Give the backbone structure.
Amino acid sequence: MNFLKDDETLDDLQLGGLFVIQKKEAFRFGVDAVLLANFAKVKRGMRVMDLCTGTGIIPFLLAGKTEASYITGIEIQTEMVEMAKRSTIFNKIENKVEFINGDLKDLKLLKTIPKVDVVTVNPPYKLQNSGLVNPDDKNAIARHEICCTLEDVIIACRTVLKDNGRMFMVHRPERLADILCTMRKHKIEPKTIRMIHPNTKKAPNIVLVEGQRDGGAFLKWDPPLYVYKDEGGYTQEIDEIYGRVK
């Protein structure tokens, strides 16, 4: 099987010998996906679903980092799913990871999939009406709420989670009020928040949120995470998350 097309790269995740196929020019995974995979609490034997999975980066990271029994990724863009499936075959993990080409707003589809212990999601961050957007642009679909809104994402999380199952989301701090209000509206109780800052002198630009389906009210804040040292270079915690140091 020819795994790569001319406009694609095969990127080493430096994690258990796993690789991911990505487009050279289109949306490529960044620090958000790596932080989310690290933030998600996945115990041995758990079933996991990743919504808005793109090329499958979070399922592949979780397959390398955790002892999840099965991981399903859902993505609306057919081309992305086709790439993710090729990555699965290349990595020889078809028995553990699968990808479904589907719309997370399709609750009928979601209800056909076995319920999961954990759902992860790196959704589009930008509001549907913010800025001029070409709806056919693959990068725009990844970044703007064209195919789904924040509320669609949270309804999908509730639909696929078992009772007391956990949701883990990466988003932008300026949307935090929307995120928490919408979670509560759909009975996913916010449990943990962690802010990610570029360095100690800058405001946070990423937020990680954990919620529990039908959980009791109790919210805790994790210590902030700094990506770079003030004098430059990655912080030790980021190096540890990326597996560059033990």
Summary: The domain at 8-241 is CATH 3.40.50.150 (Rossmann fold).
